[in-house]
Amino acid sequence: MADRVVLAYSGGLDTSVAISWIGRETGKEVVAVAIDLGQGGEDMEDIRQRALDCGAVESVVVDARDEFAEQYCLPTVQANALYMDRYPLVSAISRPLIVKHLVAAAKTFGGTTVAHGCTGKGNDQVRFEVGIGALGPDLEVIAPVRDYAWTREKAIAFAEENAIPINVSKKSPFSIDQNVWGRAVETGFLEDLWNAPTKDVYSYTEDPTVNFLAPDELVLAFEAGVPVSIDGRKLSVLQVIQELNTRAGAQGVGRLDMVEDRLVGIKSREIYEAPGAMTLITAHQELENVTVERELARYKRQVEQRWGELVYDGLWFSPLKDALDVFLAKTQERVTGEIRLVLHGGNVVVNGRRSTESLYDFNLATYDEGDSFDQSMAKGFVTLHGLSSKMAAKRDLGL
């Protein structure tokens, strides 16, 4: 088997041109690997055939939708992971899965090198290459767009000069990455922080005012931290995400406009749409409020932030991430129950909770008749709780 390069293939201009370019520069055959993560758009068979038409010796499409939902989106829900307290890691969690299949394809097809289409300014180059280093440390990596300063104009010229069969007539002003977990949009006029997003930026969500007079109420059920049904209908994790994308998206839920701290040290303006992701995380957080003990919940919030930073920074396959996964799995054992919520005007509002694992005791919480809380214990508790602060204050005041 000839020495080969395995290319992460999207079907777009850059990776299509890269097939021919890599072949000429390296003298190696190119195997194109496209991953279906529920991104929609073009038929995946058309993408597979395009890679062959552009010169790939092998073209593979992997249907990883359920794998993505269950092994990447679900841990993100269970970690309530929001980078900078806002971003549900739409692109970040897809990269390790793509890496996993690239490395597997390299073993299957005799690849010694992996190629990706990332630039040198973004986070994805790190996610791809650190991931490849963890799963296939013997593999080399090349990044034509970054390493050879490709521009769209150069790619178009190369395609025309070499009769590469790809339509480059339609030019989007944006750079877009999307999957079933959400959609990320950047560049173009969005690079001016004062410019508001226009209607054409959005695809997964309606304007929040469109269905404002028709709020959508639903009941989302979890078993041990896993979403299992909507309104009593049993669904897979993928189906839950897909349905919430549709229903929450119709209410304008999950729109984010943020200036983000990239790993490479620059700030970038990003527009995200993640209706299903934000609905799931909101519901899961609320169920944890009911079922997770106070000290565990407090510590888990610290772990959630660190977990999200590790994933954002491309360290999905790292010892610390592996260890935190074990902790997070333990915290989910009692996260079972139902959350009722309303999707309306771009917001997710929880208005009902119930669980067989609930730590909420009505008789302890009530202020009405039947109160079982012994208030006489509180005076001594308050005195002891504040004793050390009181002693320090007396010292500092010379009392």
What average pLDDT do the residues reach?
92
Strand order of the largest sheet: 3-2-1-4-5
CA radius of gyration:
25 Å
Q: How large a portion of the residues is in β-strands, by DSSP E?
A: 15-25%
- How much helix, percentage-wise, in residues? 40-55%
CATH superfamily label of the largest domain: HUPs
Number of domains: 3
Order of helices and strands: EHEHEHHEHEHHEEEEEHEEHHHEEHHH
Low-confidence stretches: none
How are the elements arranged and paired?
Elements: E1 4-8, H1 13-26, E2 29-36, H2 44-53, E3 58-63, H3 65-78, H4 94-109, E4 111-115, H5 124-135, E5 140-142, H6 144-147, H7 152-161, E6 175-179, E7 182-186, E8 216-223, E9 226-230, E10 233-234, H8 237-250, E11 255-261, E12 267-273, H9 275-291, H10 294-312, H11 319-331, E13 337-344, E14 347-354, H12 362-365, H13 378-385, H14 387-396
Helix pairs in contact: 1-7, 3-9, 4-5, 8-9, 10-11
Please name the defining characteristics of this protein:
Single alpha-helices involved in coiled-coils or other helix-helix interfaces, five-stranded parallel sheet, Argininosuccinate synthetase, chain A, domain 2, Rossmann fold, 3 domains, 399 residues, 41% helix
Could you walk me through the main structural features you see in this protein, from its secondary elements to its overall organization?
- The structure is a single chain.
- With 399 residues, this protein is an alpha/beta fold.
- It has three domains: 4-171, HUPs (Rossmann fold), CATH 3.40.50.620; 176-292 and 334-354, Argininosuccinate synthetase, chain A, domain 2 (Alpha-Beta Complex), CATH 3.90.1260; 362-396, Up-down Bundle (Single alpha-helices involved in coiled-coils or other helix-helix interfaces), CATH 1.20.5.470.
- It contains 14 helices and 14 strands.
- The chain has helices spanning 13-26, 44-53, 65-78, 94-109, 124-135, 144-147, 152-161, 237-250, 275-291, 294-312, 319-331, 362-365, 378-385, 387-396; strands spanning 4-8, 29-36, 58-63, 111-115, 140-142, 175-179, 182-186, 216-223, 226-230, 233-234, 255-261, 267-273, 337-344, 347-354.
- A five-stranded parallel beta sheet has the order 3-2-1-4-5, sandwiched between helices.
- Strand 6 and strand 7 (182-186) form a beta hairpin.
- It is elongated.
- The N and C termini lie far apart (86 Å).
- The model has no long low-confidence stretch (mean pLDDT 92).
